[in-house]
Structures are given as structure tokens and as C-alpha cells.
Design a protein that fits this description.
570 residues, alpha/beta, eight-stranded parallel β-sheet, eight-stranded mixed β-sheet, 16 helices, 24% helix
Amino acid sequence: MNRREAVALGEAPADLVVRGGQVFRPETRTFDDVAVAIVDGTVAALPEDAASVTGPETTVVEATDRVVVPGFVDAHTHLDLHQSFDAAYHYALRGGTTTFVTEASGVGTAFGARGVEALLDALADLPVTVRVAVPPQSLFDTFGPAEEARGDALEALLDDPRVVGVGESAWVHVVGREPPAGRLYERARELGKTVSGHGAGCSGATLQAFAGTVTDDHEAITSEGVEARVEHGVHAIGRCGSIRDDLDAFAEAYETLGASELSLCTDGVWPRDLLDGCMDAVVERAIDAGIAPVDALRMATLNPARHFGLDGKGTLAPGSDADVVILEDLETVDVASVVADGDVVVHNHDLRVGPRAHDYPDEFYDAVRTPSAEAWRVPADAIDGNRVEAIAYDEGLVSAPTTVEPTRESGELRADPANDIAKVGLFDRRDGESGFVGFCTGFGIESGALATTATWETPGVLGLGVDDADLRQAVAHVGERGGGWAVVRDGEVLVDLPYSVGGVASARDVEETAQLLSAVEEATRRLGIDVARPLLGVQTLTFTGVPARKLTFGGYAEVRERAVVGLAPQ
């Protein structure tokens, strides 16, 4: 008889017992007056009498008048952007999130499989469980050449038990095409692993075609969209995080669908928001939106665990991993204590773990090459006539095609701040040479420039500004700092935030990163930028996962038409 069985039979004491609380069983959606007995990091039993499994050496966690639930599972997030997670995990853990299913598009597009492996190594020893999806972005050839040489190594990652499947794939790269990433999808199916969709703007026959490839999607922003995904066999994931809050629509669909094919996620929590919570905040928001507490809890525990094949997660059944969260109440989802893998990491709101600095591969700290000053020059004879194609930024992740008439000076095309025309350029930060310089409108920038390497799903360095000298300086400064953000006006760096980890994440303490991100945003206001979320708008100018005009190394991406255009008016 092993120790777990002995505890279950009441013949031996447990290592740790959570007693006195109402224990939530997601399988039956019930709360029961039982204890949770833990041995060697595993739930051994849920006895009615805690005394039967409590010995003199047993650690006892009191949960009287509290609710005991499985550790929360974030069904879709981005742990390799903005903040190195080894310096931030404890904030998420403080809110009861013990398991994460994360994309790796930041390190994956920059370093390929080596980047994903480095991310897995960095997170391996943390007291949280992280499972990664293979990033397919470098294999897409819709708006530029595919990096097919990376295919074999990325495919091999699917054999790693820490990898749940293939990461988010936008429908424009999948439907009606045979992308090189198809090898990843086939291998994932063979292994019984998932393929995450990014179905923004996808509906009708296109959605049906997309559903033949993907297994889940977090991009439904209406109740009808959620229902359509579930009808076509796609697991729907509702999100509430730093990017969007779609839970009102999700809750409306839940009234029709029930909870069985629905999960919850953050889709990423930026440092400023992480200080206020992680999946605990999502569950609270879901309940406020009208989802029954038992179902909101299930959507954040058992449902995602089952969908992604996370054995031992999302439940407190005997044999499961000992990830336990104790809530003060269900109305506020106020986390009092947390047990992760059998260890008490939060006790009565006292966080017992902290950041764990990790040494990444040398290439992560030398990851940014920037273009020459000459690369930002747009010759006046690049077009016939006075107007050029441009991006019209709207809000959030949304932008559209437009044409503008930039200023002509000294044989060049330049920005015209009086008419809200800025210059914008994107270059491959791996070589500093491949790139495109165009124009945009909609940000309201009146002076200076900013630059960033926080370019979504693209290993780029992006510059946006109305002064060419400031633009070149901002981009060069970001390169010197190893990536991140820089805001420049009149030759002065107003603020910068280094992303020293691969050019995609800060290695600083979360609170410091949050403060600096706020400072960067405030500095963009000093340039005159007046949009609601300037940092989100700038970094997503590269994101072709939404059906809008975006920026690539080769020109503007017309997402719906799946074409790339240059400066010449169409």
C-alpha cells in the first residue's frame, strides 16, 4: 500500500490538510463539507473527518467559513511579452492562478524552437505549472516568406509533454490555403493535442472551414460568435485581461449553451493589471456578468484542464495535483491562501514566494539589430503624384487603409504633423536590414517619435514619429538598450523601458515595469498622441491576426485580401 492509499483509508496522516471549508467539486458543481488531504504534492482524499488524516506532523490550513476550489487555470495567455514571468509569477499565484497555457510567439518568432525551449527552461522550476503552445507564426507565408527551415524543430517540440499543441493561428493563414504550418496541425492531431485558433472576423462558411483545423478559439466578441464556435465543435474561450473584456457576450451565450464547452482566460495580463489580479479577477468578472459561480469556477478549472489535456489539474479529486485555492467568499473571489503542488505559497494573504531571476541564453541579451539612418529615408520619387498609401489607426487593434499626402522636403517624403500624418517603419530586428517605411494617421502625434520591439508576432523594431531625427534616435536607443520602448523629443530621450529578455520582456520587478510602462504612455501624451491606448495601438500595428491593414517587413498587409501593398496608391 502506498502512502496516498493509506491516507485515503484513514490509516496514515497526510502531509497537509485543508479543513473546515466548503470544497468545490467541479465535476458535480457542488460544495461539500469535506477536507482536502495531501500527500507528496497529490490530493489523497477528501475525507469528511479531517481528524482521521491529521497527525502531529501534518501541516493544517484552516478554511473555516471559506470556499476551497482547485487552482485556477488560465486557458490562454502570453507569458513571454512585456514582463519576464520568472520575475512576475508570484503576483499571479497570489490570485490563485496555478496553471497557465501560454503562447510563445514573442520568443518563438525571434528565436524559433530555441526560444521556446529557453522559455520552458526559465519556467520549469517555478511553483506554478506552465504549458506552452508551439508558435506557428514564422511558418506562415501569407504576407512574407515562410521560414520553413524552422519547421522540423518546431514540429519536434510537439513531442514535449510540456507542450499542449499548436499556438494561435489566424484564419487568414489557414482557410483556403496550404501553409507550411499545416505540418504542425497534422502532427498535433496525431498526438491528440490542440490547435488554437484566432478567428477575429471569421464567420459563416469561413468559420466552418476554420473549424476543421482548430480546436479552440478566444476571439468571439459577440454571443452569436461564441455560439457559432461551439456549434461547429470549437471550444470557446472567453477572455478578460489587458487586451479585451468579452465576458458580457460570453455570459449571454452561456445562457443558451451551458458551461460544458466554455473556458476562461486572460489573453495576457500586462504588469500594471497583474498587480490587481489574474484569473481571480476573471472569475469575479464572469460572476458579475451573470455566469453562475459554480460554472464560472468550472470554466476556470476543470474545463480548460480537460480541453488541453492537463492531467491532474482543474480538480480536487483524489489523485489530482495538490493545487488548492481558499477564497474568503465567492462574491469577491478574494484569495486568502494558495497551495501549489502541495506547498503553501500564500497563507492568509501573506505571499511566501517571490521572483526567481533566471539567466537566459546569451543570444537573448543581444537580440536587437537596428536599421541605418538612411533606411528611414523615403525618396520623393518613390511614387507618382502626391498621395501615398497609409494606415489609418482607429482604436484598440483596429486600423484601416487610407491615403495621405506627406510633406515633400529635400527630395524626401516626410511626416506632416499639422495634418496628423506620421512616418512609421518596421524592420526585422534580427538583421536590422529587412523592412518597410510608410505613413500612418490617427495617433495625433504632434512632435518627436517613439520606438518599440514589442511588435506582436513579428521579430521587429518599429518606429513611429513626425521628426526624422527623433525617429532614428528612438529606434537606435531601443537597440542599444536590448529592446523595449523609447520616447524621444527634440533629441532628448524622455523615457525608456528596456526589454532585455529577448527584446520582448522586462527583467525588472513587476511594480517597476508597471511604473515605467505608465511613464512611457505619459510620455507619448507629451508628443500629442491622444488615442485611448497608445501602447496597444502601436505594438499591434504589426498584428495580422485582425482583419485590418497592418505593417509588415515588405509593405502594408491587406489582411482580408491576403495581399501586401506598397506606397503607390492602389
